[in-house]
Target: Phosphate transporter
Amino acid sequence: MTQHDQTGTDASERQWKTLDQDLNRLSRLEAATMYTSRSLVGIGVSLAFVTLAALSAALLVGQEPQGLVVAVAAAFGAYMALNIGANDVANNMGPAVGARALSMLGAIAIAAICETAGALLAGGDVVSTISKGIVDPAGLSDVRVFVWAMLAALLSASIWVNLATVIGAPVSTTHSVVGGVMGAGIAAAGLGSVSWPTMGAIAASWVISPLLGGVFAAAMLAFIKWKVIYVEDKIAAARTWVPVLIGFMAGAFATYLSLKGLGKVIDIDMAHALLIGIAAGVVVGFVSVPLVKRQSEGLENRNRSLKVLFRLPLVVSAALLSFAHGANDVANAVGPLAAVVYAQQSAGVAGEVSIPLWVMVIGALGISFGLILFGPKLIGMVGNQITKLNPMRAYCVALSAAITVIAASWLGLPVSSTHIAVGGIFGVGFFREWYMERNRPGRVKGAARPLASRERRRRKLVRRSHFMTIVAAWVITVPAAAMLSALCFWALRAMGV
Model:
């Protein structure tokens, strides 16, 4: 090859190399553009859904007086449902995704199906118009004032949950609606219209819910460590105790669903719910014995093998939690909307109103769309960024959520499912910190060599920044929603909607 040919070849290679680099830069730019545009796609789909909900309401209500108000209420309800799906559902699916029992896509698919089924099948036929009895109905007896209050409560709760989702804080949508109703009630009828003892009980749940969830989750994890993980023959212990734990889980969720799901359709008291739970737990426990034995054959005697046995129960528990959540929390989106529809059609105010099917469909679809479009952010945060989860720890969190709700219902305590689930994650993380500190090398007779502050921070298993952000968001949810609601109420009254 001549020198001229060699020079030409080198120039050609440099040309192709330069072209490859340019294409690589363009590919990275295209990927970055697609990544940043995903949020715009979500916003566009959300706006289309809200608009479609408003138009559907206008068509279904027809030319009745104040039909525009119903369309506005439908838009606000759709907006609230989207935010519930974006924020609240993460508490059910986050642990399963963090434990890698489910992929993000699988979690979203299961949650969307179960949330929709729970809302449509067990969402209930009637809903209370004055949420949790926190506002005196006499203060909202005028139909126009009542409609303004419901619209203000719905819009303020939606805005607050949306802001919380943006900053990555899982908050209680129920507390957001409660704050919205309280703020609208104060704006309409003054401070005296609010039942402050009821509000005090709700405020107490800010502490009670996460503490109960954390204690139950930590206790379950301690039991699993004691009976299964830290024994000589882990597989034999798992064959004995995993069916018991699965039966316990089945019983807890059967009771939970009876109270929070079927209880919306038929009247079930605590005693009958517990009987249903005991029967389901015994049956499922016995059925799972041969299944666990077959699944454990050939597994090595190590902790990694145990994760396989807890994966399916964790997935089932996440699905059941989503079903119960759809049945229970869809009212946060459609309750005020149903109240506005009733008030506009009957020109009166009632303590309880029936929920039209089209209203329930808006709530169910909105939760699913919000989950699909915006849910991955909170699911990833809850599952991966608070503390490290595996199938055993995530199972403890899911079981804790069901047990805590049952215990709180029995004791008559107002609790938040969001606070319980996230509290369970904190409880698992803080228990692991305590356990590792108690059993770390160098600890002799209850005394341990002091660690340097930097090393102590490195050994923390719960991210303190997320802990402080979430707790702060919980504390200010009710007052923030109340202030937003009062502003919305005054704006609606000024506009004369």
User: Anything to note?
Assistant: The chain is about 80% helix and 0% strand. The CA atoms of residues 116 and 364 lie 5 Å apart.
